[in-house]
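ok so I'm stuck.
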Amino acid sequence: MNQWIIQLIEGGGYLGIAFLMALENVFPPIPSEVIMWVGGNAVHHGRMSFWPLLWWGTVGSTFGNYLWFLLGDRMGYERTRPFVEKHGRWLTMDWGHVEATERFFARHGQWVVFFLRFSPFLRTIISLPAGLMHMNHVKFLAFTFGGAAIWNALLIGSATILAGWFSGLENILGYVVIGLLALALLGYLVRVLTWKSTHPAQDAAE
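replied:
not stuck anymore, here's the structure
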């Protein structure tokens, strides 16, 4: 089982990594840390190369965030709010989260898009308020790509170093990945089951 989960992530190659990283930014229970750590282990063992892995992982991260950005930028407040309120349970966010993040964005400026790439909890949600405030597309892509590249490089590098220090890391990595995925899925299910909108239902219909 431990080798199977590693092969599952590695099996798609660099394009598969890009797809998983994009999906991670759309569907919360797939942590980028897991994907990049498996990739870093593959780099140490010669099954992948650092720069292509970093490039495609970062392209996937940027694309996933850009989808949220486009949702806000193209739909605007009137259509985005009902969408978020209607699907908030499954997105594990509601309009209150979006408004709070938007205020944070307005207070700290556009560089917040770059720095929140390092936050496991806010790196995705910031993309929607950035779109709602019609941040320049080129700036958004540049800040997102730059921040994601640094974060992914740290993840790949740390996994590569650990794999060099601990010769048995590959034997337990699959179990670590399964454990992290199980914790992420459990957290997501708890969030879904306990989620309550901060706005009355009739507001979503407006």
